[in-house]
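Structure tokens please, single chain.
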Amino acid sequence: MAPSFQQLRSLPRTCLSIAIVATSMESIVYPWTGVAAEAVPERMPATIIEGTNAPTALTDPSVNEASRQFKGVPGAMTIKDTSELHLGLASGFQDLFARTPGLVMQSENGSEVGEMSIRGSGVLSDEEPVGIIFLQDGFIMNQGDGQAILEDFDIGTVKYAEVYRGANAFKYGSTSLGGAINLISRTGYDAAPAEIRLEGGSFGFFRGQAASGGVSGPFDYFVSVTGRRTDGYRTHQAENSEGFNGNLGWRISDTLENRVYISLSRTDRQRPGGLTKDELETDPKQADPVAVQQDLNKKWTYSRVADKLTLKTENGQVDAGLFWWHRNLESRDYYTDDSPDGIQGYYSDNVGLMLNSVTRGQVFGLDNQLTVGFSPNVEREVDANYQNLNGLRGLVTARDTEFSVNAPVYLEDQQHLTDRLSVVGGLQAIYAQRNFHDLYFSSVTGDTSADLVVRGLNPKVGLLYEAGRQTQFFANYSRSWEPPSFDNMVEFDDQPGGSLVFTPLAAQHAWTAEVGGRGEEGPFRWELALYHSWVRNELLDINNAQGVNLGAVNVNRSYHQGIEAGLETELLHSLFVPKSARREDDTLVWEQSYTLNDLHFDHDPVYGNNRIGIIPIHLYQAALTYRHPSGFYCGPTLRWNVTKYPVDHANTLYADAYALLGFRVGYQSAKGFSVFAEARNLTDQRYAGDVDPIPDARTTGGAPTIFHPGDGRGVYVGVSWRL
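Here you go.
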């Protein structure tokens, strides 16, 4: 049952009452600045931060510099630093990107995001998101055919993230409708000599991290070791993982720096399978009995090395880098006559190059910025499928190699027409190849080897108007283009005794119009974007007119439109601490975000103008936080999926609305000690944390087992310390 208005209204009063105990602690220094209370400057919003003289890495700029560059983006973009992240549980992407407009995250295991969508991207994705380019320090982290495994990122090693929505991700060579997310690593300039963070709580959850960093002459370093385990909210949902992340920087000169990055990780996760809607509502903790019998599981090891060289001058910046990563994975999935995937094992190697140049100057006496880049990457993957005989490998059912190439080259120029008005034009060209080499010839399917080459050309034009130092308005019109992944094109043949079949598909593309703005005025900080995308050849899993599942195909016409809005408001200040020129007063801040995803078929011969399934329609998120200058804080949080949404494209089955109410309280000392307690899903809602995509619930031969329950009520505590 959703929380009532009275419940929501009473929590801030409770929080403020608790805060009275902290009013006598005025001599304690501020935890987020490390200076005495008498010297603390006025708190600045996270997205627009004034410069500082503190040294920082050239290869991984500070959030201050990113905020300044943010002002030159003529479209929807959000910068998320980690200051909010460490107020509570900091386990995964859902914690880092809470209340980020336009970003929809769904999880089937409660601890990590399985599906992520921006502007309706990645409707076909199942466990591994597609439709968004994920990067770390500018290096592409997606597999060669487009998919990403988000556990490759350790958010405890991130100092901030850039979320580019739509074509605003051109600078990273994004080839998708959704955009790009770039995570910037901590370096020796951002770290303490010793750091420890421990978190634990419900469902056997524990996470520990130890890190160290520093600067010595021209060198700096950062290293982090992380371990995480959970028994899971559901039966057969245990998970454990370990990871190492580190980087070493060498400041060759005042303008030139080189940095080497190393990542190692291991993950082992049980998978409880999906439930019917009735099973979710009756007993969400249960697992699918077949999932337990066949021991559904996913485990892998991951290794990555990258090197980045940055030259930065007053007139621009050049980044050049190389990367390689290797994954060895085994996934135990269902094995029946209807689901012959069984046990899949593969190893893959990805290599790539990153070249990016930004040149600033003047044309006709007005500022100009030219960006040129090239970011090719190549993947070779060796696969094999086996029968799943109660968790053990049976006979081979498929064997193949897959070779992927993505090679985007892009150019973007921003020219000021006046001191306040600038125009942006860009062009992106992409070459993509998908080569499938069949190594297992069944009598039914034979040799299905194939090679697919596709090319795309994407223009972009935009306007940016600076109405004031902190207020901007923008408009842009752009084309996006996304090649199909192997998961879209390679499936088992429906006939008994069949094996994998390669079905070539066209690239999905769209024209998108976007308008919006962002700014600050007094106690308000806001951002707003409205967009409409005319999509062609969208990659969706649909049925034909006779109800036969066609698998992934190109849908001729569809459209995506929506609203992405964020608002931060300082409701009150000096509640219990009198305002003084010598010290900071206490504050009550309300953060909100709202996302509308309105996705439809466009006069489809089977689905008409139906809503495209899987993606929640209205998503509202909020946090009300009281902060005392002593370091004490507390307040409620809310994640509200406002309405039900269809889980099939025929719009015959829906996931219900839900509201997840939480509360967090903690203390951060300026000397590096902090402690928190956080409660989640206080009303113990039963809801679908994730849903598998299907064309039509009426043609699945019974109630479809596609619902993955989100976690029930949970309580977590944590402590951290830094030298």
